[in-house]
């Protein structure tokens, strides 16, 4: 969920005047400036978030991207131009938080925590994510068959500058703290431990992808690192609104007077000031831990 906002604020840093338009309503005129495929509660796994209703899973987002490429190439009338164009784009991929929040951590709604240990689950997620990041070429190929004529230079349609965000500190969200308790610690350590099993696999994945696909540049953005204040200025993790049991705000309740003073708006979602800090620091890294091997400003310039 959070990723859309991070993505948009990163978009502002890259010099866009408006927010990147959402896939559902993007017009032909707008396509060439970028498209936001994000979907609340969506995950790497197809079933993630299903108890909350409709959402666009990562696989479906990739299919939507393939449709956008088809539209773009029809508009631009020049395959070479479109291929060159897509190579210059920056692709920001932030997915996976819901595979814990709205899947693994909800044993009454999803069986994953009975099927997999935390380590196995992290491995299964990273395996699927790795396919989605790379074999999306295949998805695009299938989509071209379904929606349009096929091009024989499909590989060149693919992304070449991809920022892969780690998951956040889910164990520090007000909602998980309220649900699981912290035993006097600031956060739910067992959840952060589960999440770190996945994060610890993402950096090696990015390194492998950079080695295997030498004409592409992948980079790893470490949300744990960029959400740690550099000067020890820690904002409280109390939410800004009164929470319902599901972690969302009680409708029509009065929010906190100054949302610039909290990290969380509701039980899960960070405030604009926190999102701006994350986006700024993923754009220009403050520490070598924040982004590896490139921050987004360098990725854009490559
Ligand atoms: C297609 O785009 C390429 C790359 O920008 C350009 O060099 C070429 O002249 C274009 N072809 C046509 C027919 O406009």
Automatic annotation (TrEMBL):
Subcellular localization: Secreted
Gene Ontology, cellular component aspect: extracellular region
GO molecular function term, any single one: hydrolase activity, acting on ester bonds
Keyword Protein biosynthesis recorded: no
Top-rank taxon: Eukaryota
Pfam families: Lipase_GDSL
Keywords: Hydrolase, Lipid degradation, Lipid metabolism, Membrane, Secreted, Signal, Transmembrane, Transmembrane helix
Annotated signal peptide: 1-19
Chief place where the protein resides: secreted
UniProt keyword Membrane present: yes
Biological-process GO terms, alphabetical: lipid catabolic process
Transmembrane segments: 133-151
Family: Belongs to the 'GDSL' lipolytic enzyme family.
PANTHER family the UniProt entry points to: GDSL-LIKE LIPASE/ACYLHYDROLASE-RELATED, SGNH HYDROLASE-TYPE ESTERASE DOMAIN-CONTAINING PROTEIN
Entry protein name: SGNH hydrolase-type esterase domain-containing protein
UniProt source species: Lactuca sativa
């Amino acid at each position: 969920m959070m990723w859309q906002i991070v993505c948009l604020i990163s978009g502002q840093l890259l010099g866009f005047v408006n927010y990147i338009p959402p896939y559902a309503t993007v017009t032909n005129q707008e396509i060439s400036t970028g498209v936001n495929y994000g979907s609340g509660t969506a995950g790497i796994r197809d079933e993630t978030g299903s108890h909350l209703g409709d959402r666009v899973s990562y696989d479906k987002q990739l299919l939507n991207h393939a449709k956008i490429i088809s539209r773009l190439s029809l508009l631009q009338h020049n395959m070479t131009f479109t291929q060159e164009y897509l190579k210059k784009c920056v692709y920001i991929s932030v997915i996976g938080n819901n595979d814990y929040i709205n899947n693994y951590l909800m044993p009454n709604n999803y069986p994953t925590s009975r099927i997999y240990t935390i380590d196995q689950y992290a491995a299964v997620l990273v395996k699927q994510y790795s396919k989605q990041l790379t074999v999306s070429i295949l998805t695009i190929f299938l989509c071209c068959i379904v929606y349009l004529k096929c091009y024989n230079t499909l590989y060149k349609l693919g992304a070449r500058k991809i920022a892969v965000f780690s998951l956040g500190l889910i164990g520090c969200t007000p909602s998980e703290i309220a649900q699981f308790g912290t035993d006097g610690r600031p956060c739910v350590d067992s959840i952060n431990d589960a999440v770190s099993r996945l994060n610890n696999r993402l950096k090696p994945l990015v390194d492998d992808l950079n080695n295997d696909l030498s004409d592409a540049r992948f980079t790893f953005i470490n949300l744990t690192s960029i959400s740690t204040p550099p000067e020890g200025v820690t904002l409280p993790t109390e939410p800004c609104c009164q929470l319902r049991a599901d972690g969302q705000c009680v409708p029509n309740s009065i929010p906190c007077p100054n949302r610039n003073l909290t990290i969380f708006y509701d039980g899960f979602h960070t405030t604009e000031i926190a999102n701006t800090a994350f986006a700024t620091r993923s754009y220009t890294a403050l520490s070598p831990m924040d982004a590896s091997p490139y921050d987004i400003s360098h990725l854009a310039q490559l």
